[in-house]
Design brief:
alpha+beta, Ubiquitin-like (UB roll), seven-stranded mixed β-sheet
């Protein structure tokens, strides 16, 4: 079979290659002689040319190419080369991969689902190139990387950040946004891995990702600083009456959120309430416990839900607790995310107090999401780790385990906390809550202590190494 060669310029530079790409995707006719749409016609041909097809289209395509390529790009190729390149492109278009994600870092977020990659759905990934007058196609890593986010499966969540700005209240920041956990992937590295797998005709590829907890950027007199998540407490107040739910949300969103605990300062939960707890200050009537056993309606019922959530964050952060009391009655609202780790407060009588011994300020980020309460502590990690074991009951702790030197009574729940500081010091603390009575089913339900996992929230689990679990 005779071959007509289209004249081409001797020097091919980047601009000519780019022009070729534009020309081939917009101007090149298909074998029927019709104008080509982007990645259709000649370039989108899915079957290789046969010898007969090449012969039939030789004259027609050659004449068109001769005029257009020479006029628009000064590039010339043979029709046989074009057909070979088309076969190559067709094979590339048929490429398919299943991409999975390997996550580095501690995470309770579900690993992103697999991503099914079909090259035919991403025509922009394939680019033409000319080398010494020969047309070939290649996978374009840059094109893949530039639009990588748009390809990711829906379960791939990016981390989010927030900013804390000074406010008129020296004890609080105005917080814009909410940090949230997610995954980070390096698009160029991922694109390189995808191309390498496709070129080696593999059917699977593993993409490396990192888990990230999200960050809080705090602006003070010295500029902007980046704070990391130290710990996070969680509780649930579903089935609460309207007044109680409103009080929980008010305590979290209006009083705790943005609160600053300076270094070496004592955190007092009651001080965050900033005034008396009465209807005049926007608190609703709801049930509170008085005299250790009686339930009465009073303004602010439910504030203890916020105190309990803050106490759980304090325990997980490993801050020394100076004052805390549990509820005298077992309250089902405090069962989830830390049974036995609850805190009651009553301004003027009972408070929740802890010392910020991290050496840097701690900023509280508190919020309600549906019927869940969250209190997160952000600061600058000092290398401490928190080990936590429990919950224990009288029937699960064993005779050899004591709390404050005593075995647990049948109406008590115990936890054991050990704070390991960066200098190697270990400080052990027993956390014991005594109630008037406990449901008998709890001991069997928690027959196997769950450790820190019981308290672990999405945010706290994303912490950058501030906590460990015994179990």
């Amino acid at each position: 079979m005779s071959k007509r060669i289209i004249p081409f310029a001797a020097i091919f530079v980047f601009t000519q290659s780019a022009a070729l790409s534009i020309f081939l995707t917009t101007a090149l006719p298909d074998p029927a002689g019709k104008p080509s749409e982007i990645y259709s016609g000649f370039l989108a041909q899915t079957e290789p040319y046969t010898v007969q097809q090449r012969s039939m289209t030789n004259d027609n395509v050659t004449l068109r190419l001769q005029k257009r390529l020479l006029a628009q790009t000064s590039i010339g190729i043979s029709v046989e080369n074009a057909a070979d390149a088309l076969d190559q492109k067709r094979k590339m278009q048929n490429g398919a991969l299943t991409a999975s994600f390997s996550v580095s870092g501690s995470s309770v977020l579900a690993t992103p689902s697999n991503w099914s990659i079909r090259v035919s759905e991403h025509p922009e990934w394939i680019r033409p190139q000319i080398d010494f007058g020969i047309l070939t196609f290649r996978f374009d890593e840059k094109s893949i990387a530039l639009s990588f986010d748009s390809y990711l499966p829906s379960g791939f969540v990016r981390p989010g950040d927030a900013v804390a700005l000074p406010s008129d209240d020296d004890s609080k920041f105005t917080v814009i946004g909410t940090p949230h956990a997610g995954f980070i992937v390096d698009p160029p590295a991922a694109a390189h891995a995808i191309v390498a797998a496709l070129e080696s005709e593999k059917t699977t590829v593993v993409l490396q990702t990192n888990f990230d907890a999200g960050r809080l950027f705090v602006k003070d007199e010295n500029g902007m600083k980046q704070y990391s998540l130290l710990s996070g407490g969680k509780s649930n107040f579903s089935d609460s009456p309207l007044g109680r739910s409103a009080n929980v949300r008010k305590a979290l969103n209006e009083h705790l959120n943005g609160y600053v605990i300076p270094p070496s300062a004592v955190f007092s939960f009651n001080e965050t309430l900033n005034g008396s707890v009465d209807t005049g200050n926007g608190w609703f009537n709801s049930l509170i416990i008085v005299n250790g056993k009686d339930l009465v309606q009073a303004p602010g019922g439910g504030i203890c839900q916020a105190a309990t959530t803050a106490f759980r964050a304090t325990v997980l952060a490993g801050l020394p607790v100076l004052d805390r009391a549990n509820h005298s009655l077992y309250v089902t609202h405090y069962k989830d995310y830390g049974i036995g780790i609850d805190a009651t407060i009553f301004p003027g009588k009972q408070d929740l107090k802890a010392v910020n011994d991290t050496g840097n300020p701690i900023v509280l980020l508190a919020r309600s999401v549906g019927d869940d309460a969250y209190v997160d502590m952000y600061g600058i990690p000092d290398g401490r780790k928190v080990l936590l074991d429990g919950p224990f009951f009288s029937t699960t702790a064993g005779d050899d385990m004591t709390f404050h030197g005593l075995t647990l009574a049948k109406n008590e729940i115990g936890w054991k906390q050990v704070v390991q500081y960066s200098d190697g010091r270990l400080v052990a603390t027993d956390i014991v809550s005594r109630y008037l009575s406990l449901p008998r089913s709890l001991a069997s339900e928690y027959a196997i202590p769950r450790g820190k996992q019981e308290l672990q929230t999405l945010a706290e689990s994303a912490s950058t190494g501030s906590t460990l679990a015994m179990r």
